[in-house]
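Q&A log
Question type: sequence-to-structure
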Amino acid sequence: MTAVDVQATWWWPYLMIFVAGWLATDIWRWIGVLAAGRLHEESELLTWVRAVATALIASIIARLILFPDGPLGQTPLFLRVSAAVIGFACFKLSRNNLLFGVGAAEAVLIGGWLILM
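Response status: OK
Response body:
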């Protein structure tokens, strides 16, 4: 492969990551859409699925706050906990607006990091 070929195809790995990521997740969304009409919202199966999904998200958030890697690990624990608490409070105060809650948490985390570092 020549230098021109490499420069012309620099985007190929990114395209493959995008397509593979899309296929891996989108197929489950379509299966969910097709199956949703046949499932009752209050069924034991969907209650269990919601509980497992909530537990997984909670564990990921806890790990990011308590045992972070990389640059996040360089921030003090009180700053990470404060950002999470303030972000959650803003999420609830904004009537469950996810963008507002995440934005507030990021603002606290980045602002605190800039002040402390």
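Response note: The helical segments are 3-8, 12-36, 44-66, 77-93, 98-116.
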